[in-house]
Amino acid sequence: MVTREELLEQLGDPCTNRVTERLHRFLYIRDEILQKLAREALNEDWGSDFFALRKYLAVQVPWSIEQGLFTKGAGQWYVSAGNLQTRYGTPLYLVIEKNRIGGGRQPWYLKEVGSQIAAPLLPSPPTIAAGPELPRGAEIVMMHDHMLGDNADRVLFLKNTPPVAQMCAISGAIQWSLNRELQLPYWYFGKMQYLVPLYLQSRENITQMPDLIAPVQVNKDNLLVRTVLAPHMPYANARVSVHRHDQLPPWLIDTWKEHSRIIHTTDSEED
Description:
The chain is an alpha+beta fold. 30% of the residues lie in helices and 21% in strands. A hairpin with a 2-residue loop joins strand 7 (184-188) and strand 8.
């Protein structure tokens, strides 16, 4: 009978930003199974090739295993599909068994999904990890070359601004948003971190889409900012941190809808 330790070993290192690749090395998933899951779940935009759904499962399934929230049957084991539910509020589940198709490269095979599965005991959904405590007054450390040098096209309105002024503007915008608790939790490199909306050109309406997003890594003595993102880019990483997509800010949902068809499985994994 499969054990938690066996599954964790097969999953591999959780400290990675290539979470969808990690899942697909572990679990063989047919496209039609993803289509069925998206069709049965409460309606939302999962993007091209179900990019956001793949990432959602790539975080939620390991969480279920890590938390011991899977049940077993005759040659199968079961996890919840995260916190996904049908339009009637019924939880959705995944049925997983030994992989005997697809060349057998992955140890497991996602056989079935749905709300009505024949499991001896239905599993509970995993607990969504909490974000770290934000240290007050911590220094904001920025990797300027990657943020604004490599990604200058994301901040064209700062193009002709001296580097020090750019850093001061972004640092000030981060602190301004943190003071108003506008940060959003998101999953990155095996743990929960934060996305901070940056209002650099206008702060008259903080319910509107920000100019940029800064992923913030919380360290003991500082807040590290490695890059800045266009507002639609971190949607999939933020989606895993809430029970339902409507719990995300409306501006994030709206900008995702505008860009979801041009985001593909290989995009944004490094962001």
